[in-house]
């Protein structure tokens, strides 16, 4: 099987599921919703507090500030990667020289690679905002607010899935560039 002009051996059903994951980034939010709903369901059945309601206020604040910092830094890194990707994918070989491996990518494949990066950035930005809003809303309250915490965790799970896709795209571009 050929993927972006680089031969890849098919690994059966696992490869099909992975390819579906790569081509459907909006499903990240469905997977994240399912994970948080499962978490909430288990908490309700076990009669435990929802999300992080009973965690110490200082620990909750530190967690959400850390998530905001990591998401902001990762969004900046991803945005920088986009500008580098534009330069790499737009580079043409000199007249008379053989074609560069990345020049063989079709416009559709170039767009798909770019969309992987561009899809991750808004989710990371929303995670920064949601985590900081949660810190402000909770303040020094002895118990947390489960609804903003659930929103933060949905965005965090979805962002992790988007970053897995970004790592895959970087690996593929590197494989193609060195083919």
Question: In a nutshell, what does this entry contain?
Answer:
The protein has 179 residues and is mainly α. The protein is 72% helix and 2% strand.
Keywords:
179 residues; elongated; two-stranded antiparallel sheet; 72% helix; 2 strands; mainly alpha
Cα(first) to Cα(last) distance is: 15 Å
Strand content: under 5%
Class derived from helix and strand content:
mainly alpha
Low-confidence stretches: none
Total of domains = 1
Task: State mean pLDDT (0 to 100 scale).
Answer: 84
Helix content: over 70%
Number of helices: 5
H-E string: EEHHHHH
The major beta sheet can be summarized as: 2 strands, antiparallel
Give the radius of gyration.
20 Å
Shape: elongated
Question: How many extended strands?
Answer: 2
Spatial strand sequence of the major β-sheet: 1-2
Structure overview:
The protein has 179 residues and is mostly helical. It has one domain (2-177). Helices cover 72% and strands 2% of the residues. The protein is built from 5 helices and 2 strands. The chain has a two-stranded antiparallel ribbon with strand order 1-2. α2 packs antiparallel against α5 (146-177), α3 packs parallel to α5 and α4 (107-138) packs antiparallel against α5. The chain is elongated.
Topology record:
Blueprint: E1 2-3, E2 6-7, H1 13-23, H2 27-45, H3 57-90, H4 107-138, H5 146-177
Helix pairs in contact: 2-5, 3-4, 3-5, 4-5
């Amino acid at each position: 099987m050929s993927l972006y002009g680089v031969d890849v051996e098919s690994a059966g059903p696992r490869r099909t599921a992975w390819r579906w994951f790569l081509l459907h980034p909006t499903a990240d939010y469905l997977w994240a919703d399912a994970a948080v709903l499962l978490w909430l369901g288990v908490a309700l059945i076990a009669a435990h507090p929802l999300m992080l309601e009973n965690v110490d206020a200082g620990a909750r604040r530190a967690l959400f500030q850390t998530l905001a910092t990591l998401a902001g830094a990762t969004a900046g890194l991803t945005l920088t990667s986009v500008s580098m990707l534009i330069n790499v994918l737009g580079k043409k070989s000199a007249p008379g020289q053989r074609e560069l491996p990345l020049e063989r990518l079709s416009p559709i494949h170039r767009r798909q690679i770019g969309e992987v990066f561009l899809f991750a950035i808004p989710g990371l930005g929303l995670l920064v905002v949601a985590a900081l809003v949660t810190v402000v809303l909770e303040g020094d309250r002895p118990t947390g607010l489960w609804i903003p915490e659930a929103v933060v965790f949905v965005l965090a799970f979805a962002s992790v899935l988007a970053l897995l896709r970004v790592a895959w795209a970087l690996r593929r571009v590197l494989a193609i560039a060195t083919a």
